[in-house]
Amino acid sequence: MEKFKNIKYSVLDLAYVREGESQNETFKNTLANAKFVEDLGYSRYWLSEHHNMPNVLSAATSILIGYVAGGTSKIKVGSGGVMLPNHTTLSIAEQFGTLDALYPDRIDLGLGRAPGTDQLTASILRRGENFMHYNFEDEINKLQQYFSLENNTSKVRAIPGEGANVPLYILGSSTDSAFLAAKLGLPYAFAGHFAPQQFYNAVEIYRSHFKPSVYLDKPYTIACVNVIAADTDEEAHYLSMSMFQSFLNIIIDKRQAVVPPEKTELEVASPEQKYMLKGMTALSFIGCKNTLAQSFSDFIEESKVNEIMVSTNIFDQKAKRKSYQILSDLFR
To answer: Where is the Luciferase-like domain (predicted)?
Structure first.
């Protein structure tokens, strides 16, 4: 549609495990979905770092990015994101420098500060160090230094990595990240698919405080949202039950594989749990093409985002790809 012609559209994938599916099948579906959306004109395919979650297989994020980039030809592939405190900046520079050397000009590096897991697992990933005073900004600056050609005289160099063309994105689910992305002059991606409460405030802070940099001359915002599209509103809402069950499982700390709609148990949620579920999924777009056209038109006009990144947690893979197809038809 004409009103969406300047809006890019992309995918966030957590490599969700479906009930009855092996890990190998999950990864094969991830690559198949990436190939599918590449043909539809999607801009990028991001994978998100999570740990100690039996239902999510994107823990070794850079390896999975390499797998997807190797099986596609033009779509940008990256992290949505790498949780930087879990790693040394040198190791991330080397990993993404390697990816850039293998797949030039196709690798994105989205950076988050959250652990992407529970506190016990985070303490193991972070080698037991005290991260109460972790300086995210300083670590990003170190990462940029490793990527720079000027680092070639340093005693510690990232090889591969030095001189790599790996765009950085700041990820966030609060206003803190908005201030930082604006200060550093980097593009900003907001996790509206699970933490929508501060979205509008955060993007406004980012735009109003943005300082142009060598990386970006004006603000660039990505809104990650849940999208479940189908031929009818009724079918879309039916398919969305799997997504809502997955979010409810987070609330009740029941980590299990994604189940089909007919196996969901949403009716057993307490009023308090339903209230939390509604809050977590406030930025969800569910319906047929015409319904989504209206809701996205309103959302884009109000938020003024540059790019929509969709998280589409549908059990049936054919229905999932149909959802991607409908969104592409809308934005192309």
So the answer is: 11-252
